[in-house]
Design brief:
Elements lengths: L1 E5 L6 E6 L4 E8 L2 E5 L6 H9 L3 E6 L11 H8 L2 E4 L10 E2 L5 E4 L2 E7 L8 E6 L5 E7 L14 H4 L3 H16 L7 E4 L17 E2 H7 L9 H9 L9 H10 L4 H8 L2 E2 L1 H11 L2 E4 L3 H6 L6 E2 L6 H9 L6 E4 L5 H10 L5 E5 L2 H7 L9 E2 L1 H10 L4 E3 L3 H6 E3 L2 E3 L18 E4 L4 H12 L5 E4 L2 H5 L6 E3 L9
Parallel strand pairs: 4-5, 5-6, 6-7, 11-12, 14-18, 15-16, 15-17, 17-18, 19-24, 20-22, 20-23, 23-24
Antiparallel strand pairs: 1-2, 2-3, 3-4, 8-9, 9-10, 10-11, 12-13, 21-25
């Protein structure tokens, strides 16, 4: 969930970091005026904070049209009367201020200057914060500059009618001309941290000085040529999640208020009503309990994505279509949280949740299913005595580092592209790093009629503790993205 960190070095600035999205929003307050940068979908915390500070939200600054989450700019503007501000070239379908490069906005004693920094997207802008004396204090860099990385230049190719190499070249110029000339003591507040799909090499820290980034960020090397930058920034980019363009569309064109989404999504459904809704609407039954609970028993053909893992990004990557109807099986008391977190990545078509959870489903005598799961020790014994196929659903980088010798790579990120790789009748093993992703993968396979799965509980973390032969620093054996 969200954590709010007071940054004592700059009074009046708070970073609101949401770990499950690896996303940073910002609250800036001075003399009763507030600016919010890149707000989350649920806006009440910002409003409550401003009321507590006896302040008024004056501006909502968006660094760009986000792809990995739905911003709260429209709802926040509606509820507060604040002006939405985008950088140059933005063309939203709603009323907003489209700032000019170097245009300045006053927030109490602070001045926020717009630096147009295209490259990640064409409208991408960095907001430079100045104090009352005109001293540069901080930059809110959006997806232009991360800590340890820069924004990927391949997401806006279609909209910009440019190649990723051309966008990377623009990003190079933006960094060199707008950001790197700033003083080393300027603080960098990025839109994302480690774990976000918007970059590939981000640090776990969420705040740093620009001077330190100039020293250690590969993309800010002073002696780097434009050609070197383009090559390094575009090298090794994995395909973006399929829900990204849909989130951009929502951020650009509009969406339902979260209140309406919650009203629909938190309807209590009895087991009979739940079953009827699933049959009549074609909804995905999404089970967000712990993987151990799902393994022991679940609704047939339901998909597992646990609320306590990388929930929203995995839902976005694997369900993909944000219009897909969804029915929820959740731990008691976490239904609203589930609907809220789905809405953050654009899944607004939640139809309700199973009242009483899975236990109510069982008590009603409904059909149930289980997933065969074994320990790493049992896996070792069976692997040594039988010739059963093994599949590794981790990321390619994890697989390349070390994997079970017999394992084939079928990354969860692209599982839907590799369904033909799995045997339809012969049993096979499935593992990930810690047991979360393998159960997600198993649930998807079972929903598609593949039931001959043996999950390795605890994943590679437990496998390494046995003496199962592993391979290190090799190429993927069969499956490539």
């Amino acid at each position: 969930m969200k954590s709010i960190t007071q940054l004592p070095t700059i009074k009046g600035i708070e970073q609101i970091y949401t770990g499950c999205l690896a996303q940073g929003a910002y609250y800036i307050q001075s003399k009763g005026e507030v600016a919010i940068i890149d707000p989350l979908r649920e806006v009440e915390p910002y409003i409550e904070k401003a009321e507590k500070d006896n302040a008024k939200i004056k501006y909502i600054f968006e660094t760009h049209f986000h792809a990995d989450f739905v911003s709260g700019h429209l709802t926040l503007a509606k509820k507060t009367g604040a002006s939405i501000v985008f950088g140059p070239t933005a063309n939203p379908s709603f009323e907003a201020t489209i700032a000019e490069d170097n245009q300045e906005f006053k927030v109490g004693d602070f001045t926020i200057k717009v630096l147009h920094t295209p490259g990640h997207t064409m409208e991408s802008s960095t907001y430079l914060l100045k104090d009352k004396n005109g001293k540069d204090l901080a930059i809110f860099s959006g997806d232009t500059l991360f800590l340890g990385d820069v924004g990927r230049p391949d997401l806006a190719q279609k909209a910009a009618s440019m190649t990723q190499e051309e966008l990377a070249g623009m990003l190079f110029e933006s960094l060199r001309n707008k950001i790197m000339p700033l003083a080393d003591d300027v603080i960098v507040f990025p839109a994302h941290g480690a774990g976000s799909a918007c970059g590939k090499n981000m640090m776990k820290e969420t705040v740093d000085t620009l001077g330190n980034q100039k020293k250690m960020n590969y993309a800010l090397r002073a002696d780097m040529t434009k050609e070197e930058f383009i090559k390094e920034v575009t090298d090794g980019l994995a395909p973006p999640p399929l829900y990204f363009p849909l989130n951009v569309k929502m951020n650009k064109e509009g969406y339902d208020d979260l209140d309406e989404v919650l009203l629909r999504g938190t309807r209590e459904l009895s087991p009979d009503a739940f079953e009827t809704a699933a049959n009549e609407t074609g909804a995905i039954v999404l089970d967000v309990r712990h993987q151990n609970d799902f393994v022991k028993g679940h609704i047939p053909r339901s998909v597992f994505i646990g609320i306590d893992g990388g929930f929203a990004p995995w839902a976005g990557a694997l369900i993909a279509d944000t219009a897909q109807p969804i029915l929820i099986v959740a731990p008691q008391g976490r239904e609203k949280e589930t609907v809220t977190r789905l809405s953050r990545v654009g899944f607004d078509n939640t139809l309700g949740f199973l009242k009483g959870g899975f236990e109510a489903w069982k008590s009603a005598g409904k059909e149930t299913d289980t997933l065969k799961s074994i320990s790493a020790e049992t896996f070792k014994d069976q692997l040594l005595s039988q010739n059963i196929p093994v599949f590794d659903v981790r990321k390619e980088s994890e697989y390349l580092s070390s994997h079970v010798k017999e394992a084939q790579l079928t990354s969860l990120d692209f599982l839907n592209d590799h369904l033909s790789a799995f045997p339809k009748e012969k049993d096979f093993y499935l593992y990930c790093a810690g047991g979360y992703r393998s159960v997600i993968a198993a649930s998807i396979l079972k929903a598609r009629g593949i039931h001959n799965i043996i999950d390795v509980a605890g994943g590679y973390a437990h496998i390494k503790k046995t003496e199962i032969p592993v391979a290190e620093a090799t190429c993927p054996s069969t499956i490539k993205q």
